[in-house]
Design brief:
The protein is of the alpha+beta class and 263 residues long. The protein has 2 domains: 67 residues, 434 Repressor (Amino-terminal Domain), CATH 1.10.260.40; 181 residues, Endonuclease, Chain A, CATH 3.30.870.10. Helices cover 48% and strands 15% of the residues. Strands 1-7-6-5-2-3-4-8 form an 8-stranded mixed sheet, with helices on both faces. Helix 2 crosses helix 3.
């Protein structure tokens, strides 16, 4: 996943310094500067950070804040990359980059997952291609007919009900039903917690009181240690998945029952 280093780009524009200029001042190849710009997580060597900051007239912490944060953080909090007060505040590009970069495992353990289709219209095609390339993709959804869902609808009291949002997701993932590597299960225990995993990175939303998902806070995590925050939330999603019911198996059994002649 690559997130553009906006701070570095802005500082270069303000200082009227080109990529070649900065490369010359830092004693690196211009392609190295391009990589700094393309990926804010790429932190240069200290001497290069100092040279760049001097050339641009800003502090190194402005250009590469992760360098400071990673120095200070030594425990489980180092796994917290970003905190958003609202899920809707997370840029769509973060979701796109996480999905695109995942090679082995993607988990969508949101109760409805409705917003995914709203914000990423071509998601089903993207996921189909990812699955065909060997990525395992799992959806954990709430049961639209369960008592948990009905109670949540009463709490939220919004026109687009929880069950309707779940059914929209079911309609979307129907296109992936026969794609090897794609699975979908029902489970109600994640009603208050959404976990979205992309290999070693994760977006987690604890749902607040009567608020819908996009109004609840979200954490962006990256795994750095055993039994840290990432592993704890991964365990949560894995346990709920193991107790879930196969969405498509349920539908198949219902169709079989309907087709069976009555004696």
């Amino acid at each position: 996943m690559y997130v553009t280093n906006v701070a570095l780009r802005r500082a270069m524009l303000d200082a009227h310094v080109t990529r070649q200029d900065l490369a010359d001042r830092c004693g690196v190849d211009v392609k190295t500067v391009e990589r700094w710009l393309q990926d804010e997580a790429r932190v240069p060597h200290l001497r290069h950070r100092w040279s760049a900051a001097e050339a641009l007239g800003v502090e190194t912490a402005v250009l590469w804040p992760d360098a400071i944060r990673n120095t200070v953080k030594t425990g489980p909090d180092r796994e917290v990359l970003t905190v958003y007060p609202y899920r809707s505040a997370c840029p769509k590009s973060i979701w796109r980059n996480l999905i695109s970069a995942a090679d082995s495992e993607i988990v969508f353990a949101g109760y409805t997952n409705y917003f995914l289709w709203l914000e990423h219209p071509n998601l089903a095609k993207v996921l189909k291609r990812k699955a065909q390339q060997g990525c395992k993709i799992r959806f954990l959804l709430g049961d639209p007919e369960s008592d948990v869902t009905r109670r949540r609808e009463t709490v939220e009291n919004v026109p687009l009900t929880v069950s309707t949002r779940i059914r929209i997701t079911l309609s979307e993932i129907e296109h992936l039903r026969d794609v090897p590597g794609v699975e979908a299960r029902y489970g109600d225990e994640h009603i208050a917690m959404s976990v979205f995993r992309f290999d070693s990175e994760m977006l987690v939303t604890p749902h607040l009181a009567k608020l819908v998902g996009h109004d609840s806070p979200m954490l962006h995590l990256r795994r750095h240690q055993a039994d840290g925050l990432f592993d704890r939330f991964a365990y949560h999603a894995s346990e709920l998945w193991s107790n879930g019911r196969n969405v498509w198996a349920d539908e198949s059994s219902e169709q079989t029952e309907e087709a069976t002649p009555q004696g």
